Every structure is written in C-alpha cells, then in structure tokens.
Amino acid sequence: SKEQLEDGMEKLSIAVSNSTKDALPMIPQSTKPIKTIFGFKNPNGIAVSHDKKIIVTNMGTNEVLVYDENYEKMGTIGGEGIEPGKFYCPQGVVVDHDNHVIITCYTMHCVQKFTVDGKFLKSVGKAGKGEFEFQAPNGLAVSKD
Hints:
Elements: H1 2-11, E1 13-15, E2 23-28, E3 35-38, E4 43-48, E5 54-58, E6 63-67, E7 73-77, E8 90-95, E9 100-105, E10 110-115, E11 120-124, E12 126-127, E13 133-134
Parallel strand pairs: 12-13
Antiparallel strand pairs: 1-2, 2-3, 4-5, 5-6, 6-7, 8-9, 9-10, 10-11
C-alpha cells in the first residue's frame, strides 16, 4: 500500500559525502538530517555493509573508518601506507554481495578488497593504461552477478 511504501521510505537513510565540509549528514529520504558524524578530513566514499556497518573513506587522513548502525566508530580498515592493504588517498568504497569491502586507492592506482572486519584479501591494479591498470581511480560499483 501507499502507506507502507511511505513508511518504508522513512526508514531508509542517505549519507552524503561532502569533502569540503569534513562531516557526513545522515538523511532519511523524506525529512531532515537525523545525524551528522563529525571528525573527518576530506571524506569521500561511503558504503553500508549487509550487517549495517557504515564504511567511510577519509582521504585527508588516509583512513577507511568503520561505524556501527548507531554511528559509533568501531575501527579502521587498512591504514596509511603504500603497500597492499594500506592506503594513500582512499576514494571510492562499495560492499559486494559477499559483504566484502572494495576500495579504490587514488594515488596507488589500485582497487583493494577486505572483509568488513578489516582483513586484507587482495589488491588489483597499478598505474597505466593497460588491462587492470588505472589512473587515479575513484568511483566504483558492483553488479548483482
């Protein structure tokens, strides 16, 4: 029914990444912001895991931060560095159908995969124009397949 649809829309939230504001407003789709998470320095990508963890790439501190569904910080994924499993300018983030976190690293020209708890799984890519080579990747998406 229309009432059920509208009620369901009330419960969905939108997180807005605004790299010049250093905060993330959490907005229900039909009303005013419900929460703003502060303490970022150039946040860029945002994703939500299947178990409702909020994952944020914080480019200004070379961190990927993890929050619980109550917006409390739980920890980080990776850390600052240039070796696999680390970041220098993390950008895009998405959660795949297996609940793995996939993150683009702008400066390292790669895409890295982690468990939602932060265990490094693999890295793909390097600088270039060939297959599996990137030039400052940022956004990404995952298909249902």
